[in-house]
Design brief:
single chain, alpha+beta, Cytochrome p450, 14 strands, 9% strand, globular, iron ion binding, Cytochrome P450, oxidoreductase, iron
């Protein structure tokens, strides 16, 4: 990064310091890995990339991310404009991508009113119902485990946001969501399209040579609109008929100050509610799916960890209903699993609203700030030379078992001297994911239920040999493993019955 007192200095070789050259050098895949390599090469946790269209600041340490995005959140809480995603596809009203201001505060307020960290009543019943169906589906057709995960995760959000209950894996709502998430995973990365760098290109007609992105944008706009608008209008119509099921959209509509009386039209306030409900769906479903896929891969690759976790669960829920145990205990042991592979390796970028200085470095107004969560969670200075390895106990301390009532207290707790890996994955400052508590609670119960009821092992080939596993991930907005197969079988009749 350029120092204010030395504007010509740069962490790049001189021949590579022009904005156009650095734009060409910007990685289009595995950005989090390349940025981490650059940070190590230049021995700096702050990188300043002068790219065409602006400045990009990559933060690769917890200290830098907290100093800027949390302690100086008053100026580091906005979002850079992603022209393709927001202007052309229609994500401009999404809470995640809204710039910091009154509109963002209004959207955020709706979620905070409905999903307080201390109150899980808005989602816990839906989660328990979907989880039970998920476990039964795994018993009947374990080879379709991925489809079952997708159904469970998306059905929870659909029920919470719209009161829609999905019972089959090929439900139209699920199919529509898959298409929408594919769009977001492609267009959600800043700079993925040339129009992100040169916003004026959005004005060229669709028939113009090279304007294929405009035609794709229209197709993707329709996909998103068809995913979030019909279920919301259905809630509004059901409310008018007096037979709407309790859900986030219904409660917000009931409190609306200026609704449009027409069932197929939305006032400005209702549009905000629709976008906020859509943000819940877009932000919560696929991250949960990705986390569970990583968990299954880890359990196959590290069977000793799986066995020890199962033994711990068998002791802790002895003599009580497992569902009650999950409600009562935070199960910190399983939280550390998501540290291994950050679900969102590059946190959604922030934007600084005014020029700033940090440790003698000059940060231009309007710079895009990218926290490299993947690098932060693998910082060798914090987690040691084996930070890249999967080892949940790195963050845990073992305590003596204490019997209270029918259930034993959990024998593991987070090490207070080791930085909690969970909080980092949900963002920084004022842009921390508002669904953090719901997402974490759901992930913990899903992981605990899977471990308690099933053995997760690699599949066998035609000769009965274990299929070799490779830990390989696909680059994108989300950090998910490449497609893989696994065997999920009940541990025993007793472990299935306890659900």
């Amino acid at each position: 990064m350029d120092k204010k007192t030395q504007p010509s200095s740069s962490p790049w070789p001189q021949e590579a310091s022009s904005p156009w050259k650095q734009s060409c050098d910007m990685p289009m895949t595995d950005q989090h890995i390349v940025f981490a390599q650059w940070a190590e090469k230049f021995d700096s946790d702050i990188l300043h990339l002068k790219v065409v269209g602006g400045n990009c600041i990559v933060l690769s340490s917890y200290e830098a991310a907290m100093d800027l995005l949390d302690k100086r959140s008053s100026i580091y809480s906005s979002r850079p404009r992603v022209t393709m995603l927001q202007d052309l596809i229609g994500w401009e009203g999404d809470l995640v991508y809204l710039p910091y201001g009154n509109a963002w505060k209004a959207h955020r307020k709706l979620l905070h009113q409905e999903f307080h960290p201390s109150d899980s009543s808005a989602y816990r019943p839906h989660h328990k119902k979907a989880l039970r169906l998920f476990l039964n589906n795994l018993i009947e057709t374990p080879e379709e485990w991925l489809r079952h995960i997708q159904q469970m995760t998306r059905s929870i959000i659909l029920a919470v946001a719209y009161g829609i209950h999905v019972q089959v894996k090929d439900d139209p709502s699920i199919i529509a969501a898959e298409e929408m998430f594919a769009v977001l995973n492609t267009a959600g990365i800043p700079g993925s399209f040339l129009v992100d760098v040169f916003p004026l290109l959005k004005h060229i007609p669709t028939w113009f040579p090279g304007a294929s992105f405009k035609r794709r944008a229209q197709e993707w706009y329709d996909i998103r609109n068809e995913t979030i608008t019909p279920p919301f209008l259905k809630v509004k119509q059901a409310m008018a008929n007096g037979n709407a099921e309790d859900c986030f959209s219904l409660r917000c509509l009931a409190n609306a100050q200026s609704p449009d009386p027409r069932p197929d039209h939305l006032s400005e306030e209702e549009e905000m509610i629709k976008q906020t409900a859509g943000s819940m769906y877009e932000g919560g479903a696929d991250t949960g799916i990705t986390a569970l896929r990583t968990f299954l891969l880890a359990m196959m690759c590290f069977p000793d960890v799986q066995c020890e976790a199962q033994e711990e669960l068998d002791r802790d829920c002895r003599g009580c209903l497992f569902s009650e145990f999950c409600n009562r205990r935070p199960l910190d042991f399983f939280c550390s699993i998501i540290r291994w592979q950050a679900i969102v390796p590059l946190s959604v970028p922030h934007q600084v609203d005014t020029e700033d200085t940090y440790k003698g470095y000059y940060i231009p107004k309007g710079s895009t700030i990218m926290p490299n969560v993947w690098a932060i969670l693998r910082d060798k200075k914090t987690y040691g030379p084996t930070a890249h390895m999967f080892n949940p106990k790195r963050w845990l301390l073992k305590t003596d078992s204490n019997e209270t009532g029918h259930c034993a207290e959990a024998q593991w707790r987070l090490n207070p001297d080791m930085r909690d890996p969970v909080g980092i994955t949900f963002g920084f400052g004022r842009r921390v994911c508002p669904g953090k508590h719901m997402g974490l609670a759901s992930f913990q119960m899903n992981v605990a239920s899977l471990l308690h009821s099933f053995n997760i092992t690699p599949t066998l080939d035609d000769n009965g040999h274990v299929v070799n596993l490779e830990i390989e991930y696909v680059s994108g907005l989300l950090n998910g493993p490449v497609p893989f197969e696994c065997s999920i079988k009940p541990r025993s009749e007793k472990h299935i019955a306890v659900q």
